[in-house]
Specification:
The protein contains 19 helices and 4 strands. The chain has 400 residues and is an all-alpha fold.
Length: 400
C-alpha cells in the first residue's frame, strides 16, 4: 500500500489535468452539437479509404458525391496524403463504417497539448503556466474548431500538428532520428510540413559546432535514413495510384482540373496574402461580429500565438540576435506561407485561417530557442485566442 501511494504521488498532476479538462470541454461542446463526440463524421473519408485498403483496393471503389475525391482513369481516389488512413485502420477493424472520428480528432488535440506541456516544463516553465499555455497552444488557435470535427481535412491537420509538436519535443531532447521521423510522417498528412526539415537541419548542425565539418555532416545524414524510407513509401504509394511519385491526388480533383490556372499558380499569391494579412474581422454597431466565411481572414487574429512569435522575431532582428536555427525557422515559415498562398484556395469555408495552424509548431520551436519566459501579455493574448476560437467553434456549427 505504501508503494502504491508513492507511485500515485509521483504522477504528474499537470499531465492528468490536461486530458481531464480538455475532454470535459469537448463533451460540453459536442453536447451543444447534439451529443456528437462519439459519432462517426459524415466527412470522414479516411475510414472509407481504410475499408478499401482492407478489401484490397487503392481506389475508393465508387464515387461518394459529398467527398473530395480525385478522378483518374475512371476511378475515384482519396485526394489526400495517406498517413491518417493508417491511423484509422485499427479503428475500422473495430467499428467498421461507424468509426468515432469526432473522438479521434479530439484525441489528436488532447495529445498535442500534453506533448506541448512536456516541452514547456522541460524548458523551465512552472507547472501551472505550462498547463495553461499547452492548452492554449491548441485551443487558442483554429485547432479548437478543427478538433471538434472528424472531417477529412481536420483529421489531417490535427495529426499533422500532433506529429510536428512531437518533432519539437524530440528536437528539444536532441533525439535527431525521432525528430526527423516525426517531420517525415507529418508530410503524409500535410505535404508542406517538409518545410520543417530546414530548421531541424540548422539546429542539429549548429549544436555540433564543436565537431569537425565531416562529423557534423555525418551527424545529419544518419538520422535521415528513416525519413528517407518513409519518403520512399509515400512515393511508391503515389506512383502505384497515379504514375507520379509526387502526386497525392489533389491535381485530379474536378475543382482543379476545371480551373484555368490549376491547383497552384503565382497569380493566387497576392489575393491570398491579402486575405491572410489584411482581411478583417469587424465589430458592428450592435456588437455582433462580422467576418468572412470563405478563404479566411487575418490569420494572427484567429491564431494569436503568431503575434507572440512575430514580436519575438522582430526583437531578435532589431537586436541582431537571430542565430542560424531561428533564422531558418523564419525562412521556413515564410516559405510555407508562400506555398499556402500559391494554392487556389486557403481552406474554403472556415473560421479563421486554418491552413496557417500548420506553422504553429515552428513558432513554438522558435520561442523555445529564444528562451524567454512568457509574460502576462502573452497569457492575455492566448486567453483571448481561446475565447475567440471557442466562439468560432460554436458559430461554425450552430450559426452557420
Amino acid at each position: 500500500m505504501k508503494g502504491l501511494f508513492k507511485k500515485l504521488g509521483s504522477i504528474d498532476a499537470g499531465m492528468l489535468c490536461i486530458p481531464a479538462l480538455m475532454l470535459l470541454g469537448y463533451i460540453f461542446i459536442h453536447a451543444l452539437f447534439g451529443g456528437t463526440l462519439l459519432s462517426h463524421n459524415y466527412w470522414d473519408s479516411y475510414s472509407l479509404q481504410a475499408m478499401s485498403w482492407l478489401s484490397g483496393r487503392l481506389d475508393m471503389g465508387r464515387n461518394y458525391e459529398w467527398l473530395e475525391l480525385a478522378v483518374y482513369n475512371g476511378r475515384y481516389y482519396l485526394s489526400f496524403p495517406p498517413l491518417p488512413t493508417v491511423v484509422m485502420l485499427p479503428l475500422v477493424l473495430l467499428f467498421g463504417e461507424q468509426t468515432p472520428s469526432n473522438l479521434v480528432s479530439a484525441l489528436y488535440g488532447i495529445s498535442t497539448a500534453m506533448i506541448a506541456c512536456k516541452i514547456l516544463k522541460k524548458a523551465g516553465m512552472k507547472q501551472g503556466g505550462a498547463v495553461f499555455f499547452a492548452i492554449a497552444y491548441v485551443w487558442g488557435s483554429n485547432m479548437l474548431w478543427m478538433s471538434t470535427s472528424g472531417g477529412v481535412w481536420f483529421l489531417a491537420q490535427g495529426l499533422n500538428m500532433l506529429l510536428l509538436t512531437a518533432c519539437v519535443y524530440f528536437t528539444q531532447q536532441k533525439r535527431r532520428a525521432a525528430a526527423y521521423a516525426m517531420a517525415a510522417l507529418a508530410v503524409g498528412c500535410r505535404p508542406f510540413s517538409a518545410c520543417m526539415f530546414l530548421p531541424l537541419m540548422a539546429y542539429f548542425y549548429m549544436i555540433d559546432k564543436g565537431r569537425s565539418r565531416a562529423e557534423r555532416i555525418r551527424g545529419q545524414i544518419r538520422p535521415l535514413i528513416i525519413p528517407a524510407l518513409i519518403a520512399v513509401c509515400y512515393m511508391l504509394y503515389n506512383y502505384v495510384r497515379f504514375g507520379d511519385v509526387l502526386e497525392f491526388g489533389h491535381n485530379y480533383l474536378p475543382e482543379f482540373m476545371e480551373s484555368e490556372k490549376g491547383q497552384f499558380s503565382l497569380s493566387y499569391i497576392l489575393p491570398n496574402l491579402y486575405n491572410l494579412l489584411l482581411r478583417p474581422v469587424t465589430l458592428k454597431a450592435d456588437l455582433t461580429l462580422e467576418y468572412p466565411l470563405f478563404n479566411g481572414f487575418m490569420f494572427y487574429i484567429a491564431n494569436p500565438m503568431f503575434l507572440i512569435w512575430f514580436a519575438a522575431a522582430a526583437k531578435d532582428v532589431c537586436g541582431k540576435k537571430l542565430d542560424a536555427a531561428r533564422l531558418c525557422i523564419v525562412i521556413a515559415m515564410i516559405a510555407e506561407l508562400m506555398l499556402l498562398c500559391a494554392h487556389k484556395t486557403l481552406g474554403g469555408w472556415q473560421f479563421g485561417a486554418r491552413y496557417t495552424v500548420d506553422m504553429l509548431p515552428m513558432a513554438l520551436m522558435y520561442l523555445l530557442l529564444k528562451k524567454d519566459e512568457p509574460g502576462g501579455s502573452s497569457a492575455f493574448i492566448m486567453a483571448a485566442g481561446m475565447m475567440f476560437n471557442l466562439y468560432g467553434a460554436l458559430a461554425m456549427t450552430m450559426l452557420h
